[in-house]
Design goal:
alpha+beta, 2 domains, 5 strands, elongated
Length: 136
Amino acid sequence: MQIIGNKYTEKDLRDHLTELGYFGRSAKFLKLELKAIERPGWVQVFEFHVQAKKQDGDWEQQFGLCRSDERNNTFEVQLFSSQDRYLQAFRRESEDMITHERGPRHWSFGPLMAVFALAIITAIVGAIVTSAATAP
């Protein structure tokens, strides 16, 4: 379920597909999601997966990115035939932007979680021993 509607982005993408020789109005969007944003929100990167019909009648699946900058009304689209090339482009386009993808954890995560678990276990054992020692 999408929280933010993307109808303006979808319309812009349909227009772009039409310019590239597809029937943009009949394109089927299988995915269109906001994937990265730059503070304060003017620049946005969307990921999409679309089935589009070429004017010769063949249907093609395309993966893509579109970068929208509301400050100067720019809309850039990149199309890819495979997800591998898409992922490389996404990493490049979303560098220094806010994304919901999680990066690798810092090396200290494991030891800190172990210390935290040890502290919780110690507190539980202490509470049990204290309540057993004070019981009549």
